[in-house]
Structure formats: C-alpha cells, structure tokens
C-alpha cells in the first residue's frame, strides 16, 4: 500500500513527518522507520476501507502503538493534545481532556497510562455502560459489553507493542498490525450498534436477552467443572 503524498506534510524536524489523514488528530511519525511505516500504512488502509466513525479510538490505538519506536519515555509532545482530545471524545459526555493534557506531559507514558488514563477510562466506561454517550439508560443495549471486551483487547495490543518491537523479528510485525486492523474493524461494528437510537424498552429487552444468552453457557460450564472436581474414579 503506497502512502499518498497528499496525506503528508513534512514536519519542521527533518526526521519526522506530520500526517493529515488522521484528522482531526495529529499524527507525527519518524521517517524511514519500518515500525512507523507500518503504523501509517495500516492506519490509512483501515480508514480507507472502513471509514470509521469512531475516529478517537482509531487514533488512540495507532498513536499509542507508534510510541514504542520513538525510543523515549514520554509521549511525543506534538501529539499530546490530540491524544488528550481523542480520549475526551472516546469518554464523552465526560470532559476529561484537561486531566489527560496535564498528566501525559508530566508523567512517562506508561506511568500516565497506569495512574491516570486507566482509572479515568474505567470510570467513564462504567458510566457509559449505565447511561451511554447521550445520557440514555443502557444506550448500548446488548452490544456495549462486547464493545468493551474489544476495547480492552486493543489496549492489550497497545501495551505489548514495546515487546513486539524489541523482541520479535520484523517479518512478524505485519501479523501484529493485522490483528490490530481486524480487531479495530470488529470494534467499529460493535460501536455502531451501541449508538443506535432505540426505545428504552428495546434497550432493556436486548440487554436482558444478552445476559440470558451468557448465563446459560456459563451455568453449564460451572456445573461441568464442579462435576470434574467431584469426580471419583472407580477403582
């Protein structure tokens, strides 16, 4: 996949490129860095193929994955405000940009994720589970929990990026980015289902049916597990 030259602007720093395809967020990557070339390639390909409406998560994932190749402890200053703004959009209707902007610049990136981003995100998503992005009870219906599972899976992919970058050979990196690409696609689908405009009764019914669908296999699994524990072989 070739990068369209219209999608890039050469940064003042001769070693980096500032991309516009990530608009409204700012993406700055290092030139002639294979990891960053893959970030740009898969990011553009994903936006072109799926035209996501969940742009904030797309940016958070790819910019977060790009961090490891900068070989520094703090998140790149040129992207800090965009990262914070993307988090606020992701966590709407809660205004969280200010706290993200303050601490992403003060702390190293991984301390910021653990001490600030993670607890704020847990709080925001707990409230979104109850009231969604539009202050509507159970707005996500049956699909908010699957959306969250995919959300935390994407976070895991971001956290393991330094290990993939450091310990895995370059020929394996495309597999890693492909996993991110396809997980984002499923996440986007679930997100669109979460923001449908449904009546309150439909949302409650849908969520109840989802819980029942989960309860039955979990109940059978627990019974089977208990049977295995209590099983006494005949001598």
Q: How would you describe what is shown here?
A:
The chain has 235 residues and is mainly alpha-helical. The chain has a domain of 138 residues. A three-stranded antiparallel β-sheet has the order 1-2-3, sandwiched between helices. β2 and β3 form a beta hairpin.
Profile the largest sheet: 3 strands, antiparallel
**Structural class, judged by helices and strands?**
mainly alpha
Strands of the largest sheet, in order across it?
1-2-3
Spatial separation of the terminal alpha carbons? 65 Å
Low-confidence stretches: 1-6, 8-12
User: Mean of the pLDDT scores?
Assistant: 91
Give the count of helical stretches.
9
Q: Give helix and strand order, one letter per element, not per position.
A: EEEHHHHHHHHH
Q: Kindly state the number of beta strands.
A: 3
> In which range does the helix fraction lie?
55-70%
């Amino acid at each position: 996949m070739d990068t369209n030259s219209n999608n890039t602007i050469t940064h003042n720093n001769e070693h980096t490129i500032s991309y516009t395809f990530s608009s409204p967020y700012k993406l700055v990557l290092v030139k002639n860095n294979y990891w960053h070339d893959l970030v740009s390639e898969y990011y553009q390909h994903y936006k072109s193929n799926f035209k996501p409406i969940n742009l904030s998560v797309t940016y958070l994932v790819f910019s977060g994955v790009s961090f490891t190749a900068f070989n520094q402890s703090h998140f790149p200053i040129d992207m800090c405000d965009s990262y914070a703004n993307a988090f606020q959009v992701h966590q709407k209707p809660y205004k969280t940009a200010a706290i993200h902007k303050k601490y992403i610049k003060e702390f190293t990136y991984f301390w910021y994720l653990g001490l600030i981003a993670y607890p704020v995100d847990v709080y925001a998503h707990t409230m979104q589970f109850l009231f969604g992005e539009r202050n509507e009870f159970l707005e996500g219906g049956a699909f908010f929990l699957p959306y969250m599972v995919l959300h935390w899976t994407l976070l895991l992919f971001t956290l393991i990026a330094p290990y993939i970058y450091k310990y895995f050979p370059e020929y394996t990196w495309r597999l890693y980015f492909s996993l991110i690409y396809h997980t984002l696609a499923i996440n986007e689908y679930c997100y669109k289902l979460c923001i449908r405009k449904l009546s309150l009764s439909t949302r409650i019914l849908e969520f109840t049916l989802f819980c029942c669908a989960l309860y039955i296999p979990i109940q059978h699994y627990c019974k089977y597990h208990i049977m295995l524990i209590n099983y006494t072989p005949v001598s």
